[in-house]
Amino acid sequence: MLLTNTDFNFNLRNLSRKMATPSSANRMVTVLSIDGGGVRGIIPGTILAVLESLLQDLDGPDARIADYFDVVAGTSTGGLISGILAAPNSENRPKFRATEINNFYYEYGPLIFPPDQRPPVAGFPQGRPVYDGVALRDAANELLQDITMSNTVTNVVIPAFDIKRLQPVVFSTNDAKSDVSSNARLADVCIGTAAVPIYLPAHYFETHHADGRVRTFDIIDGGIAAANPVLVAMDSISKEMWELKKGEAEPLDYKTLLVLSLGCGEAQFEEKYSAEIVNRWGWFLWLSPLFQSLFAASFGMVDFHTAARFKSFHSEKNYLRIQETGLTGEAVAMDLATKENLDNLVAIANNLLDQPVSRVNLETRAFEQVEGGFTNRDALADFAKKLSLNRKLRLAS
Fold first, then answer.
1. Which end of the chain is more exposed for a tag (fewer CB within 10 A), N or C?
2. Is 76 part of the annotated catalytic residue set?
3. Which pLDDT band, with edges at 50, 70 and 90, does 269 fall under?
């Protein structure tokens, strides 16, 4: 079944006419959101490399992803990607190109998730995490060193979950600039948000309040709080507006938002579990359907609510979600870091770009193709044009 959406149009001709004269009133707030998913982060990594190449075609070889987004949000492996994209060099320019994201997975993936240490039963040990997390800590510290959240070249938003306090915690550049106790090392935040329960150990670190008191964090995977962080990103925008206007800000106008949301892939739908089957399993076998159900529910609910908000403002075209929903076999694994699987995930990402644009159906809640013949690659190319035009408006105003 195809969604009927006659106004779905990524053509920029009308937008270009409207914005022919640079004006801050016409500028949009731009958001990049990246899901969690372990080594499957190489899927959005591949898409981001394509996007950055498109931006360089428009604006020159020095263009970087972080130049174009007011907010870059990431959960778990998406948090790592966000940190890599927004880390500054000595000239306060983005330190890494988008192509280096995939290099990270190829170089460090097999060290973080050694294939020979994968247990035979879907990675479910008893009593301790599968992997010791040393390679993840080493990799994050090597790449990000002592960069703190306040140093990032754009506003980064990374959710995590504090296992000691049993509450979510959201790290952001804006909070770090206003509260010294929130100004954690970017490497620590990335290690913590990527600490997927069962696979990797929780991460402990400290910051200090202005008066010297210690603030402690015992954090695990941000996917526990928000597997898809797009709403967290937009809430951070609302919070900033509220603070700037001293509590008098109007509700967020989704017509002024331009949002790109990238998934790490979901397993192909199949009637795999039933109450009768799982009720016969031991506790540890419950974890497979439990995790898949939790993440699928989080991805689906967040996408549904985001799409509904944009639709209520008649601005569906401002929200682009690119997600593979048909992963099968070894591609589903979060911790299979063999070259063969990574190569396969890159191929899946490239194939996804050539698939028709899809959007959640607000009636059935299914992720369905949109009529019009546009592929994700087409949509990404026009999204790049919007980002480029928007940056010119920003610089002009």
1. N
2. yes
3. low
